[in-house]
Amino acid sequence: MKAIALLSLFLISTASLAQDERFYRKIFTGELTDKTQEAIQYKVIVRSPRYEIDLNQDKIMETIRVEKKDGFDFFLIFDQFGREIFNKRLPAIGANSRLLKVDLKSITKKVNTLILHFYEGAIDSTKFEATAKLFFVTFDKNDLKKIKFFNGPHFFHEKEKGSQYFNRRYSVNTIDYNNDGSREISVSYNKISRIYFYTSTGEWKML
Predict the structure, then answer these.
(1) Which residues are within 8 A (CB) of 96 and not within 5 positions of it... i.e. 6 or more apart?
(2) What are the residue ranges spanned by the domains of the chain?
(3) What is the model's pTM?
(4) How many other C-beta atoms are found inside a 10 Å radius of the C-beta of residue 77?
(5) Which long-range contacts (CB under 8 A, 24 or more apart) does 72-79 make?
(6) What is the phi/psi pair of residue 62, to 5°?
(7) Dist CA 19 CA 165 (whole Å)
(8) DSSP run (H or E) holding 49
(9) Beta-bridge partner residues of 186
């Protein structure tokens, strides 16, 4: 009986450890579901003001806000009545991560996109290194119930090499390159140019 009890306790403990390991792995990889995020009781929450913006060009103002929860960055969208309709964690890699800028761009007459310029933070263990990247928040057919989030390219890289720092310039533009009536997003960074084409499914493809 003692052997069976010990075996049962071992199996329960092993299952609990495996479950905890999966949970913490999801925290660091950004794989938490919305329900899981809601279950977390954050200790420190800092919120920016709400900024008004007409996301789907219907002359009705929505609002956007940034939140910092225990060091994690979140981007939120609210409808005209103040109801939350979008909440996304922006993955960071180091300290002092923050949203630098938000641009609203018209891709077609029925599609708008928010381009988020996000500083991922800095790693300063042995050598300093910092990066930033773009995210595209697209409103397919200008329907705020069909918001798509796309993980875009890096546009900034600052790295210590010896006693020098290298800070690469970048530019982001929306241009209709192929004259099909739909604008593409072009990102030029570190002598590399990338062009992203919008698809009818709310996704982006890189050329």
Answers:
(1) 119, 121, 122
(2) 34-206
(3) 0.77
(4) 22
(5) 73/97, 73/98, 73/99, 73/118, 75/99, 75/116, 75/135, 75/137, 77/137, 77/144, 77/147, 78/50, 79/144
(6) -100, 175
(7) 42
(8) none
(9) 173, 195
